[in-house]
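Q: My collaborator sent me two sequences in one message, no labels, and asked for predicted structures for both. Can we handle them in order? The first one she listed is below.
A: Yes, handling them in the order given. First sequence, followed by its structure tokens:
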Amino acid sequence: MNRIQFSNSLKSKLVYYLVLSLGLTVIFFGFILIMSLTLQDVADDRFANEQFLQELKVQLEEVQNPLENYLASFSSVSLGKLLFTTETLKEALPADRPITSNQQDLMQREIFYLIDTYLEKVNLIVEQKRGRKVSEYTSGFEDLSTLYSYIGERIDRISLTGFREQLEEYRGFLVLFRKIQIYSLLLILLTTAFAFSLLTKTMLSISAPMDELSRMAGKISGGDFQVPDVHYKSVNEVNQVAEAFNDMKSSIRHYIHELQKQKAIEQEIMTERVRNLKMEQLLKRMELYTMQAQMNPHFLFNTINTGVQLAIVEEAEKTADFMEHLAALFRYNIREKKFFVPLRHEYEGLLSYFNILKIRFPKSLNLILDINESLLDQFTCPAMVLQPIVENSVLHAFKSREGTGTVSVSISWEDPVIILSVKDDGVGIPREVVENILTPTNHDYQLSSKVMGLENVIQRCYFFYPDQKDVIDIRTAPDKGTEIIIRIHTEVKPCIEL
């Protein structure tokens, strides 16, 4: 049973035809390849020998020319080149020079000994030149030139003789090769015709059932799943495709039914997910409200305490100015209950705070505002971000320093980003503290009051812009001050719609 199924399979038939065709083709082409490689080896040997002789001729010329220059000018450069080319030529000559019956090899052996004699004469002429024996090296150079010409003629004669022998061998190979090509072409054509006839017969037994299967598949793709099952008596592969087609049709019907059920379940899941997202957004709003509420009591205690002290030690007029600025700042804090406010509101609140600081620290603190006025009415920013950062600088940047400290605030524009910067020239912030407060977190913020306001601002920026990695940056160095930079991308909406 297995034997019948195997012989009836498309795979077995194609493999049989393929192996037969390839086997014959490989045999024919293998024979052609062997003959071609043999011819190529003979030609390569001839060409390699010819190339070697021509290289010797070139190297002889490279020795002759520097020697002539050296004798004419006594130049050390020419002498150095002569010695180098002489050694190169010596190394190129074969050390093994066997005597054979081949006339070509004997002629080459003669050339090698002639070159040895030539090199010995070169060395002798150089020594005579160094000894200033003019007549001797002049006569020697003439003899050397005659030997140089004779060696060149012998090399050309050997090359010509070798070329003639190679040409005769090549003609014989070409005659044999043409015959092999003709016979091989005839055999390949016969093999191809035989394989093509067998393949055509097999393909005809496959094409008719596959055409019908194609029509049935077209009906199914149009949504008609009521087509009857199909059965054929063809090669095993076609029979298996027909059975698979029947199974696929049943599976698609079942799959569509399951998709309808799954769609209903996914609709319920999406509804639940929307409810969860709304709840998550509500929780984040509550967390933001909690963070914003943390700042006001701490600031309120410090400012009111300062107002009481001024009321005791100073006259009422200055205290009145202080309380007026304090009232303006409180009005801003009470008014701005939104998470995002116009830049102008943030600027006005910061200006009131600056006026209070100027009264508290008239001699020890220098405050600088560098604001691009055109931005104030165009854009918004998170509420209460500048004043807590300035407060953090005032409280901690100048504790261990004497003299006047400087805090500068700038609002600038780098399309499409608004840059809010607070910079001081204080003691700086330790690196471990910077790394800690720049880490996004969801804890309950039970840190010390030293970084409470600053961390509040940082975490709110992370909440609003979770995908903007550079939304906030702290640049600090010991005793060189600190700069805190907030970048608000005007084309990116906050993650929470408020």
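Q: And the one she listed second?
A: Here it is, processed independently of the first:
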Amino acid sequence: MQGRREFIQRLLALGTSVSLPLGIASCAQPTVRSAQQTGVVLDPLFFKHDMAEHPENAQRLVAIDRELEARGLWSKLSPVAARLATREELEWVHSPGYIDEIASISEYGGGYFNPYVGDTYLTEDTFAAAKMAAGGAIQLNLAVYDRLVDNGFALLRPPGHHALEDKAMGFCLFNSDVIAAKALQKYRGVERVAIIDFDVHHGNGTQDLTESDPSIMAVSIHQHPYWPMTGAAELIGKGDAAGTNVNCPFGSGAGDQAYLNVFDEVILPKLRAFQPQHIIAFAGYDAHWQDPLAEHRMSVTGFNRLVDKLKQAASELCGGRLALSLGGGYELEPLVHSVAGSFEVLLGSELSKDVIGPSPRPENDYSRQLEILKRIHRV
């Protein structure tokens, strides 16, 4: 408990007194640099957006908190205070009517955004939680860009990569990563931002919101064909943005080698050509072989290696400016070990053993698909 107490004390020193039973506090003020290099965003509102029987529920964060405490990581992390995104910031990517609809559903006690689909729920606290997630993403990315912390991880809920301009889907309400990229551009004059999505489901919202914007590169490694049935490799962006949408789809059975090889042979060359000044990663861990909502075969070790490659790319291309935000992962044991492993990579700490290990089923060979992707993306 000592590590978490120290973390909470540092967060409280930023000027907040709001807390939940876990003790994680909320604050709207920016952080200052401490001795630690890795920032973290976690707010009480992220726990209040909750439906116990739904796969995307608050127990995911509860379990992550316990694993970070068990590994002694809280005392090594620097708190970055979240804040509510403003109406103007939300409207950078979402329509006014859609924002009002989310607010209205929450105001009247919650429900499903589309009851006929029934995948994206809201509670009375969801509108505030979604605004805090977007604002937390902004704050972390600004802190990383300004070198207040070296890198960071925003433990956000609800997630965002499926959220479209005027539609919630796939558990997602506001597209926090795209909003954060816009904040870097508007508040800091950043010219090029890369968003790299390794959630097993394609980030269709991120693609749709950026496919005509040459200043944002949207990269996605995902299972395809699979829900949401988007993300074909041939979709490379529109107009002046052609080449800045980088889809890397793999069928069922893809694992560590497919993900790591496509990063080395497709994604890294594309990043080098694009020269981002900042990298945002949508860190979904539902490609793990134990996850119930997908069919890929990643391991915790594979995720650690992938995040390390992201860290190295950020070091080479943009002064180490890398900020992760939490995506999927619905089997708690691989989720918490993967998230904690990502923190260890970001901190430069010794990596804990992968106690789950690799999939008992061998990965499918996707070397031919890799060659196809290299031709499509001209690398």
